[in-house]
Amino acid sequence: MSTNQAIKVENLNKSFGRGDTFVDVIHDASFTINKGELVALIAPSGAGKTTLLMMLGCVNEPNSGTIYLGDEKVYENRWLTKETRKIRREKIGFIFQAHYLIPFLNIMDNLTLLPQTNGVDTKESQAKARELLHYFDIADKESVMPSQLSGGQNQRVAIARALMNNPEIILADEPTAALDMSRSTAVVKMLKKIAVEQDVAIVMVTHDDRMLEYCDRIMKIEDKKVVFEK
Amino acid sequence: MIHLAKEDIRHTLGKFTVTAMGVGMLLGIVLIMIGVYRGMIADAEVLLKDLDVDLWIVQEGTLGPFAEASRIHEDLKYTLKGYDAIEKCEAITFQNIQMPKAEKQISALAIGYDIYGAINPINPHRLIAGRVLKSEHYEIVVSDKTLFKLGDKIKLGRNFYTVVGVTHGTVNSGGDPLVYLSLKDAQELQFTYSNKRVQTDRARGIINRDGHLVNAIVATVKPTYTLNSVAGELEKWLHKSVYTRAKQKEVLTKFVVEKASKQIGLFTVILVGVSTIIIALIIYTMTLEKMKEISIMKLIGLPNFTIVKMIVEETLLLGVMAFVFGNIFSHLIYDKFPKHVQLEASDALMLFIIVVIASIFASFIGVKKVISADPTAAIGG
What we know:
The complex is a heterodimer of chains A (230) and B (381).
Chain A: E1 5-16, E2 23-34, E3 38-42, H1 49-56, E4 64-69, E5 72-76, H2 84-91, E6 92-95, H3 107-117, H4 122-135, H5 151-163, E7 169-173, H6 181-198, E8 201-205, E9 217-222, E10 225-229
Parallel strand pairs in A: 3-8, 3-9, 6-7, 7-8
Antiparallel strand pairs in A: 1-2, 1-4, 4-5, 9-10
Helix pairs in contact in A: 3-4, 3-5
Chain B: H1 4-11, H2 13-51, E1 55-58, E2 72-73, H3 76-81, E3 86-101, E4 104-113, E5 127-130, E6 139-143, E7 153-156, E8 159-167, E9 178-182, H4 183-191, H5 195-203, E10 213-214, E11 216-221, H6 227-238, E12 241-244, H7 245-256, H8 258-289, H9 291-300, H10 304-333, H11 345-372
Parallel strand pairs in B: 4-9, 6-8
Antiparallel strand pairs in B: 1-11, 1-12, 2-10, 3-4, 3-11, 5-8, 6-9, 7-8
Helix pairs in contact in B: 1-10, 2-7, 2-8, 2-10, 8-10, 8-11, 10-11
């Protein structure tokens, strides 16, 4: 039966090192994030924001616990599939601090690379890319290289790339860190709009308190525990 | 499907092309080295082909004039002419000489032959100016490589020789030009000592009787006889070493050119190895420059195969482009070398296969880097 949950985490634990170098980062975390939600993830530097994001993104392996992406259990004390990259390719979109577009591909190729790897027909993926470029008001930029675009335009392309595989989840690691206030606000509003319109769960790491007002919930890592505040 | 290697190369085309040209110059030198070896073999065979004889009769226990000193009596040819199996035979001399030209000395191999004989070492197709020898004395036919012209006078030993003919493409295995003298002049040049030496020898009771020595007798065999059996018979009865044409060719390639070919072969292997290492390092550097993008690709879910394919294709293309540049480079410069450089398509094809295999090996270091790339390295600036 299909539910509204996009991410469900139960008793998740992550630590690094052993003995004197042992560091407990996430301890017994349990939470659910629903589709259509924009959730901010805040914590001091080194508290484990990126570690948590990478565990949700099936990049870093937890020590124990359970992770559901949508209705699919992907981790239960071990990855339940060897193809974690396939899960990322098909279910998750990533947005980073910088745009990290591939510099030798033009905008259209940057957008269609992932769907084409997933086996989507070239024409179909290009149509989807054009639709998104239009949505982000950069429809005339499909043939240009990333180096020819402004920072804000590139970040919009990066967001479009994250949406190209119709993800259930978008993990955004400080997507506004490199942008000024007005562009940051525009990007976060855009993410909020995407979450609602595309029914996607977005977890956004941010250090900028001014962006929190646009988020549905705020998730904090406090003393290794994951807690929510309104 | 997007072709990552093509797009990456297009993005850095200038840098990629210059790199390929650099590696190509190395591969060009590899082709030149192989060409030098081929040239040596071809040069070594010039005289064999031009003489076009079946048997070489030389001093017993020696390998013949191409490999070591051989002296036999000229009149042996008359004995040989008495054999039913022998169609024609002539005496011949070989001598390394230095020919003065202006301030320089030009090394050459002088071949002496009987100008009235049945076997003539001058191939008329190679004669580009003048004529063959017609006088028994003081005439010389030279290779155009000596830079002498018709009518030039050359001092050799005690006498001056007039250039009456110029040939093209006539060199020995060492790349030295061939010059042709009459047998009598060649014998005088090789076996007659200076006046002082003759006087000293006479005082010691030594009388110079070497005037009718030659270095080899060459012969053709009637078609009804088998070469090996005739050679065996002659060795048995004349107490001389007798080599068939095939054996003489083997002597040339095995004993004369072998060391040079090993040296060139070793240089070639080293150069191919160096080229492989350079290609590997270039690809490794190119991969390092793309590590951020590779991490991103892995993080967003691109399979290793897609990224590895890009690296391998780029390496292969670098190798192929370098090979093409190497070919162009070698064809542009090969005739500037003092030695004969013979570029052959079969060698180029072999090098192409080696370059492809070497490129695949060279890509491993980049591929290893890709496989070990941490996707989380893309996170956090």
